[in-house]
């Protein structure tokens, strides 16, 4: 979503379009996760991870009520898992949908707004990351090449053959 703000700032598309598409994408993803949880509810209840996670989810729902749907979006790593658990927990899509839509809208607005506002700094950061990725790729290629050569050399030594030797002498 940060990148969508940068692209909106560059004029690739309108800021409003970024908000609309980002919110719709988040809502669709969360809704699919919810329906996966609702669809496999019976089977999931027999799984150990569900039994271990269920008390925590229920505690979160008791403590924050329906706002837990909104709040959990901002906890790293819980967004998709929580939508699945809300489907498992009979939360009700009519309660889940408006809260997740509002939460997605706020989250998209924050991230897209940050990308739009700090476009120049993000472009530099993305450029630095791109350079770092190239360096990592080159390092990986060099390491793989060294490994392959050493394995090949080891195999030639173990077989006690000369690579450029004459095999006709037997």
Task: Give an account of the 3D structure.
By secondary structure, the chain is mainly α. It folds into two domains: 2-117, no CATH class; 119-170. The chain has eight helices and no strands. Helix 1 (2-9) packs across helix 7 (93-117), helix 1 packs across helix 8 (119-158) and helix 2 runs antiparallel to helix 7 (93-117). It is flat. The termini are far apart. The model has no long low-confidence stretch (mean pLDDT 80).
Number of domains: 2
Strand percent estimate: under 5%
How far apart are the first and last residues' alpha carbons, in Å?
69 Å
Number of helices: 8
The secondary structure category is mainly alpha
State mean pLDDT (0 to 100 scale). Answer: 80
Instruction: Write down the Rg.
Output: 26 Å
Largest sheet composition? none
Basic shape: flat
Poorly predicted ranges (pLDDT <50, ≥5 residues)?
none
Could you state the oligomeric state of the chains shown? single chain
Helix content: over 70%
Sketch the topology as an H/E string, one letter per element.
HHHHHHHH
Please report the total strand number as a whole number. 0
Labels describing this entry:
single chain; 170 residues; mainly alpha; 2 domains
What is this entry, summarized?
With 170 residues, the chain is mostly helical.
Topology of helices and strands:
Elements: H1 2-9, H2 15-39, H3 41-44, H4 48-64, H5 67-71, H6 79-88, H7 93-117, H8 119-158
């Amino acid at each position: 979503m940060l990148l969508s703000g940068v692209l909106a700032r560059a004029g690739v598309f309108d800021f409003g379009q970024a908000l609309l598409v980002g919110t719709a994408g988040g809502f669709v993803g969360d809704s699919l996760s919810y329906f996966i949880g609702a669809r496999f509810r019976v089977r999931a209840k027999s799984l150990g991870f569900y039994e271990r996670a269920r008390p925590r989810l229920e505690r979160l729902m008791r403590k924050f009520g329906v706002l837990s749907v909104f709040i959990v979006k901002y906890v790293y790593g819980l967004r998709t898992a929580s939508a699945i658990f809300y489907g498992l927990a009979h939360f009700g899509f009519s309660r889940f949908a408006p809260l997740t839509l509002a939460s997605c809208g706020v989250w998209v607005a924050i991230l897209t707004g940050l990308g739009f506002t700090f476009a120049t700094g993000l472009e530099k950061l993305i450029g630095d990351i791109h350079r770092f990725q190239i360096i990592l790729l080159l390092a990986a290629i060099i390491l793989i090449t060294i490994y392959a050569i050493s394995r090949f050399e080891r195999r030639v030594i173990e077989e006690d053959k000369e690579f450029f030797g004459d095999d006709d002498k037997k």
